[in-house]
Amino acid sequence: MENVHLAVEDEDLYSGYNDFNSTFFTEVSFPHCNRASYLMNLLVQCWIFFPSGSTFDTLGQHRGPAPPLEGKNEDAPEEKIKIMEKKVNDLIEESCMAYSSGTSQLALEKAKEARRKEQAVVRQREQSGTADHINLDLTYSVLLNLANQYEHNEMYPEALNTYQVIVKNKMFNNPGRLKVNMGNIYFQQKNYPKAIKFYRMALDQISNAHKEMRIKIMQNIGVVFLRMGQYSDAITSFEHIMRESPNITTGYNLVLCNYATGDREGMKKAFQMLISVPLGIDDEDKYIPATDDSSTNMVIDAIKNDKLYQMERDKCVDMVKASQYVELANDLEINKAITYLRQKDFNQAVETLKTFEKKDSRVKSVAATNLSFIYFLEKDYDQADRYADLAMNANRYNPAALVNKGNTVFVKQDYEKAAEFFKEALKNDSSCTEGLYNLGLTYKRLNRLEDALDCFLKLNAILRNSDQVMCQIADLYEQLGDLQQAIEWLMQVISVTPTDPHILAKLGKLHNDEGEKSQALHYYSEVET
């Protein structure tokens, strides 16, 4: 933001800063205490003297009843001041409550009365010689509330004067934040140069530790430049914010500024930054049923198919279909079907995916792949095989379609042919873990144990903490007769799932086969516990 300059104003940045109505300011002096003499006065020695012939009464039985507690003297100056300060606090609270209830005028009257009584408290302290005990927090609260109430009642000159009283007094902290309020008032008055001046002054006085506040001030500066028509300066502000702390509002304003300047490349870049802003929510997750909460599931069932929810999605899809980006509409429909799958609503998913049977090859292949998978889960293997063929015909390099086809052949126990499909899937996509896992299972059925072991060892290099893969490796080593290797792999499984009873029982059996009775007993006892 140091590179952003306001062209319309040549005056000094802080000029006019000290201009304010002196009638609103009361200077109070605070004498300094002599710390050494004060500490010496506290060093008072304490002596205990017993008269001659008196006995030491540890329980105080000869004293008689304790005297009554000394009551507070409300006529004492300090007590009077405390009562007055409490009344001031009560008036501040009443002012805030009045504003929250919508009665701004009453809130202002209460704030003014609190200011008058607070000034009376200051005079009382000065008269009683306790000016060094003036309650600065109370004074700050009174002035800040008064300035806020002036602002709420659109009495902007009075509000600015009151804010100026606060920031002028060096005893008060956080003057930078109050200058933001003053900048907001100038913005409301459409005095944009003054607004920018005070926002910049606030930035100067707020440390980098308060990053979020600085970002908001810079956003205000960008908006002021936007109102002034200085789009280049606004773009500089908004781009800085999008680099440091991107948000939707700033991204949208950046797109508008680039549009105003006719910068098409800038618009593209700004739009990419806008859509990259993380929303921090997943709208679809709230429609996924929670299996362990029946009452919540009932609410989800009631709202997930409400008319407004359906209309908003359909409206977006229709608008995209009518544009030149038809492929995006197809992707939205595919995403809709996948959402139904996550909700375990297979009928809706199938109905949505079947609409793609007559679409172009890419979308048809994706839809048919998902349909094949759904029918396979429902054990309708003929339909699963049909849609797997449809997906392969639409895109013969689709690894997911080849895996689905291999699965349908596998359940028909044609393992040699299934292995060919899985190998073809891996040829098209070497990172296809599903194809590699299923190929290993197929080699096991063909009793090609070494080839199966090779598949699962490769898969373990990709999926390091997969207990299923490690279990397959352990089982293959057991079938190959290498019990020690099988035990070592099962120990790795235990590090991932330490309480799995099947793994513990298997370890007990393997140790028993190796003649290690104590170890076998240990793992069998773990299963029982």
From TrEMBL:
GO terms for biological process: inner ear receptor cell stereocilium organization; intraciliary transport; kidney development; non-motile cilium assembly. This is Intraflagellar transport 88 homolog. One of its GO terms (molecular function) is kinesin binding. GO terms for cellular component: centriole; ciliary basal body; ciliary base; non-motile cilium. It comes from Oryzias sinensis (Chinese medaka). InterPro entries: TPR-like_helical_dom_sf, TPR_rpt. Coiled coil: none annotated. TPR repeats lie at residues 176-209, 215-248, 399-432, 467-500. Keywords: TPR repeat. The keyword Transferase does not apply.
